[in-house]
Every structure is written in structure tokens, then in C-alpha cells.
Specification:
- The chain has helices at 28-33, 35-46, 64-71, 74-79, 83-92, 104-114, 127-141, 150-166, 175-190, 202-223, 236-246, 256-284, 288-301, 315-327, 406-423; strands at residues 49-54, 57-63, 80-81, 147-149, 334-338, 342-344, 347-349, 354-358, 424-428, 437-438, 444-445, 450-456.
- The protein is of the alpha+beta class.
- Helix 7 (127-141) packs across helix 15.
- The longest helix has 29 residues, at 256-284.
- The N and C termini lie far apart (61 Å).
């Protein structure tokens, strides 16, 4: 396990050990199959700092609760930077900067501009509207008697929700273009799981052109408005455009397309993967589904939503959501660059090294979550609160780059799943079905995952 940092000087620290792997390709296959559990295995054998060989590239990994806690410290902030991981994406958009690729004071400034638009405050007073949008989207795409491709259906739902929240209209015709653009950019430019030449593929170029078209249309529609948006109804687009008018050096014209389409890049794959995984975990565990159905039925029977009580009204559903995010995390690892030489886990990390931070490792450790592989929605009750242990739970990342949309995502996830389990009787293709997953561009259920819509639930039908 880790050697206390104070016990090892920078001069005496040794490089992290190399994980044993196959000739030439090293740990490529094992890491590609299930990076979260691969990091857990390596952590158990090598400690909190190690290196892996991926197609000849030696990647440094720091992992465990130690890594999660380190990211939140002053030392972690000083030792790690984000620019290199995201700079290729910034260049691909022809922009000058983006939130994920900045640190320090500039990061604070950009985060302040986008904070309201990415938070649950952006839908304050509109919960019922978003619930209705969610219901309409589900009713359109989840037909009784059909086998629904869950991830694809959830992607359309995410675009419906974000479109209405951001602009008041849904760009459903751009869903496939957004999905394709994200797939290429994250796989090639950010996670580097695919070769650079793929960016020249016609499929990507067409999708990127369409996504830019969407961004330009959003800007044009905003500028065509005849009156400013009242302060209480301002969205991310309003805040970005206001910042551009106020300080065009901080938010230049060339950055606007990336900022306008950013919520789709941030949310499409991540939220769709998470909601799809929740469908699987709830249906896979027969004792869980009826309890959640009873809870959501009681919630909707009360009538118009009380926004202050919304999340408190669904403890079982939120327990299932949190447990799914523990077992199927999106943020398996965060990518940073060493800002200077430092010691971690008794090992020397050199300035300029690309680092993967395996903050999800504690999700699978019995010391934090007894019988960690078991799906248990009671872990998050006040009595148990297993996730509140230091460094134990990191579904939205860690440190000063923790997901800006966390509070909004929590509400949208609960809305989506409450409406889905309230409206439909669903079943897996077989009780024995085991979820097939993908790791690129972000971890989650495979696109082939489908569920059967057996019927509409009586509780959701008009009286």
C-alpha cells in the first residue's frame, strides 16, 4: 500500500512500478475491457501509484481514496493541470479556451459564468415543465410491445431535456450528429483510444459540420430576440452571451459555438449512459423495482411537484441512482498532467507526465462498501451513509474540476427515472441477461442493450 509522502523525499522516491502485462501491448486489452476494475486490481497489487503499458505508451496512474483526496488539496491543485488533456478538443472547435482545459484564476472566471446555467437553478420554477417534457419524450420513443434500444432512446431524451432548458426548443434532428462528433472527439483527441487519422473520416466531418450549424443557429436565434430575458429566467446561453458582450477577451466570438453546444457534449453520453445503467440495475434486481414503483406512484399522485421537496420525496429512487453510479461510474478516471515533480504513494511523479486519476477505485472496495459487488440501495441512508467516508464516492469527479452540472444532473436523472418507472412496465430480454458494456468514449451500457415495454402502468393513466 501507499508509503506516507512525508517519509519519502523527492530525491529518494522511485518511479511507480510497471504493471505486468502481455508482450508489446502490455495491459491494453485488460484496461479496454473494464478500466474501473482493472485499476482496482492494480491498486490491490501495486498500491496507489503504478504505470501501465497501453500499446507501448507508459501511462502513470494514481488511484484509490488517496487520489480522490489528493485532488481536493492545495498540493493536488498545485501538482496537477488540465490543459493538455483537453487542448486538442479546444483546437478542433477553433476556440481559445474551455472550462475543462483551464486552471487557476481563469478557471474560476469561466466557472462563475457558467455556474447558473449548469446548475439546478437553471430549471427553478420549471420542474413540472421538465417532467412533462420527459413524459412526452418517453411516450414517443417507448412504444408498448417494442424492444427499445435503451442508450439511443436516452440520448434523445437528454437532448429533449437540455434543448428545452437551454433554448426552449429541442434539436432532435441533430442527435446523431452530436453523438458522432462526441464519439470521435473523445475517442481520438481526449482519451486517445483511437488513432488521429480517424478525424479525417467523412462521417466525422459531416457530423461536426452539422453540430457547428446547430451552434450558429443557437447564436443567431439569441441575437434575433426582440427583448432581453428576465433575470429569473436566464439560461446558460444568456449568461454566456452576456459575458461575451461584457468582456469579449474572456469570452471571444470564436468560443461561442463550443460554449453553446458544450452542454450536449457534456451531457449526451454521460447522462444517457447513466440512465441506461439504472434501467438495467433496477430491472435486474426484482426486489427493487416494486419498491421504486410504489414510491414514484405516490409522488405523482400528490399532483404538481413541490420543487423544494422533489429530491427528498424519492429516497429509494435516489438510492438506486447513486448505487448505479457507484457500480457503473462515468468518471472512472480523470486525466491530468503533472505540473511539477512530486511524490505520491512513495513514488516520484515527474513534471509533464500524463496521469490517470483512478478515483472510482474505492467504489469497489469492501472496506468502504461491505460486499461491494452487491447492488444495495440502502447504502446511502442517514444511518449507513457509506458514501460519506472520506474519498469513498466520486461519481462526478474530484477536485476543483468536479462536474459543474452535478446538481442539474441529479435532478434530471431523478426526473427521467421517476417518469420511466411510473409510466411503463419494463423487462429485460431475459432474467439471466448480464449487461454488455462499452468503454469508448465513456463507460456505460453497450448500444445493443434493449428492454421490452410490456405495457403502460395503470398508475400513469388518466383517471
Amino acid at each position: 500500500m501507499s508509503t506516507p509522502e512525508a517519509a519519502v523525499s523527492l530525491a529518494d522516491a522511485t518511479p511507480p512500478p510497471m504493471v505486468r502485462g502481455l508482450p508489446l501491448i502490455g495491459s491494453t486489452l485488460e484496461m479496454a475491457a473494464d478500466p474501473a476494475r482493472f485499476f482496482v486490481k492494480c491498486y490491490k497489487e501495486y498500491g496507489s501509484a503504478f504505470r501501465v503499458n497501453v500499446f507501448g505508451n507508459h501511462l502513470t496512474v494514481i488511484a484509490g481514496a488517496e487520489a480522490a483526496n489528493f485532488m481536493g488539496t492545495r498540493e493536488g491543485k498545485d501538482c496537477l493541470r488540465s490543459r493538455e488533456a483537453w487542448e486538442p478538443l479546444v483546437k478542433e472547435f477553433g476556440a481559445s479556451k474551455m472550462l475543462s482545459a483551464t486552471d487557476g484564476e481563469l478557471h474560476k472566471q469561466l466557472r462563475a459564468i457558467m455556474k447558473r446555467g449548469f446548475s439546478k437553478e437553471s430549471i427553478k420554477g420549471r420542474y413540472q415543465e421538465v417532467l412533462d417534457i420527459t413524459a412526452n419524450s418517453l411516450d414517443r420513443d417507448w412504444k408498448v410491445g417494442s424492444m427499445v434500444p435503451v442508450v439511443e432512446a436516452m440520448q434523445y431524451l437528454v437532448v429533449d431535456q437540455l434543448g428545452m432548458v437551454l433554448t426552449g426548443k429541442t434539436p432532435r434532428e441533430y442527435v446523431k450528429d452530436i453523438r458522432t462528433t462526441i464519439l470521435y472527439i473523445l475517442n481520438v483527441l481526449v482519451t486517445r483510444q483511437r488513432p488521429q487519422f480517424m478525424m479525417k473520416f467523412p462521417e466525422y466531418k459531416r457530423a461536426k459540420a452539422r453540430m457547428f450549424e446547430l451552434g450558429r443557429q443557437m447564436i443567431a436565434d439569441y441575437r434575433a430576440k426582440k427583448s432581453p430575458t428576465p433575470e429569473e429566467y436566464k439560461t446558460l446561453i444568456d449568461d454566456v452571451m452576456d459575458a461575451h458582450a461584457r468582456d469579449p477577451e474572456l469570452v471571444p466570438e470564436g468560443d461561442l459555438i463550443m460554449l453553446m453546444t458544450g452542454p450536449y457534449v457534456a451531457g449526451l453520453d454521460t447522462v444517457a449512459n447513466t440512465t441506461s445503467a439504472i434501467v438495467y440495475t433496477v430491472l435486474k434486481h426484482p426486489g427493487v423495482l416494486p419498491r421504486i414503483q410504489a414510491e414514484v406512484d405516490a409522488f405523482f399522485a400528490k399532483g404538481p411537484v413541490n420543487e423544494d421537496e422533489f429530491m427528498k420525496s424519492l429516497p429509494l429512487l435516489n438510492g438506486a441512482i447513486m448505487e448505479t453510479m457507484r457500480l457503473f461510474p462515468i468518471a472512472v478516471a480523470q486525466i491530468r498532467t503533472a505540473n511539477k515533480d512530486f511524490v505520491f504513494g512513495g513514488h516520484r511523479i515527474n513534471e509533464g507526465e500524463l496521469i490517470y486519476l483512478g478515483t472510482a477505485v474505492p467504489h469497489y472496495q469492501d472496506q468502504f462498501y461491505p460486499d461491494a459487488e452487491k447492488f444495495d440501495i440502502e447504502r446511502y441512508t442517514k444511518e449507513r451513509a457509506e458514501h460519506m467516508q472520506v474519498g469513498a464516492y466520486s461519481p462526478y469527479g474530484r477536485g476543483h474540476h468536479t462536474c459543474l452540472g452535478k446538481s442539474l444532473a441529479e435532478v434530471l436523472l431523478a426526473m427521467s427515472m421517476a417518469q420511466l418507472f411510473h409510466r411503463f412496465d419494463l423487462e429485460l430480454s431475459s432474467p439471466d441477461y448480464v449487461l454488455k458494456t462499452k468503454t469508448a468514449p465513456t463507460p456505460g451500457p453497450a448500444m445493443s442493450f434493449k428492454v421490452r415495454v410490456k405495457g403502460r402502468r395503470k398508475a400513469s393513466l388518466p383517471a
